[in-house]
Amino acid sequence: ANPSDLAAWLLKCNSLVKKNYIDDLEVDEEGVGDVLLDENQVATVARPGTSFARPTTSQGGGGQQNLLRPMSKSGRPISGYMRPGSNRPTSGTGTGRIESAFKGNRPGTTRPITSGGRLVRLGTASLQATGGAFISSDRLNMKQLAQKKGIAQALCEYLLYVEHNPKKALELAAEATVLSNYTDWWWKARLGKAYFQLGLYREAEKQFLSALKSEDIVKTHLELARVYVRLDQPNNALDVFTKALEKHPHEISLILSIGRVYDMLNDTTRSMEFFRKVLAFESCNFEAVASIAAYHFYTDQPEVALRFYKRLVQLGVDNTEIWNNLALCCFYDGQYDMFFTCIERALTLADDSSLPDLWFNISHVFIAVGDLANAALALKIAVAYDSTHGESYNNLGVLDVKQGKPESARYNFSVASRNSNFLFEPCYNCLLYTSDAADDLLCVDLGGRRIIKKK
Question: Is the pTM of this model over 0.70?
């Protein structure tokens, strides 16, 4: 082949990779098949603190009570920073409900059937954006291409990040690994990445461990830990991060990842220690600042949380969520003049996906000042924007009870439990406020849980 042609081909290939590159360490989404057909669960009943399915719940163990933190639609406490998979059930959580598995972030959206299906969508979109396929991977002879190291590496990156074809990338990486006499860490890492995208986590684990023996690379440690997170083995992931941190003590991504795992285990005391270490090295880290701010807010320190949220505004964050958080901090800190300014700014920037939560928070403010009529109006506005907002229905039921409307309250409690089966408040309130709940057929609709009336 003409060297000039090869140079032009290599330049275009690398350009397409740079254009379509995604840091997949920060994008980790499970499909419906991955959630419902999970074959990687080690223990059906794990000990608390050893699985994301059973995080630490006692405050003595360093965890916050989940009552104090809002829950996502998958039943997981929402932290101060939206992370990949933070609002979806992970492997082995045992939440295998088909209804919740198909639901996406917003009402009316669904997740792909498998994580591989998502890669197919990305590959199709990237090829359409580039005007068609640059390389016909089905016709390539991987054994011959593997002998040309520079071209083979560029082609492997193209298959992973542009075409999103992990099977072909795996074939190429396997041939190149054999040619390198199993000593090249780069090809082992690509083998692990391809195995991970194909859902073969144990094979990916072996390749990443082998790559680390050949060369100690921070990103390989992160990818190996991601395998353990997907396998629902947080302690193994923490061990990987800890060992990597001994060799790379100032690597922020490792410290941040340890804080994330502890936060997913609801061990907020330890997670805050690592988030503060991140700020010691990088004072403008958004995730660490937001997580610490949320921690102080839910531990009844709104004045401290307010300082951290102001820091985020100084760093250039300007969205509905930050102004909503500032408004709540100002209200509970007694700065009522600033509260109205912040909440108006939040309403100005809000879209249909964030308005339900925003009006739900406004209803809490009305309840705090004793204006129950406007609180009910705010909750009805939240329900108008999102008809599946279970928290709003639950609070509407409580307000109906206070207004002497037991039938309306019972209906709101049943709707809340059907739409948000992870909430226990609707069942508790229905039992507490409606004495004949056990004799009513609606009790069966409360998330499939039967309420038994005390005699």
Answer: yes
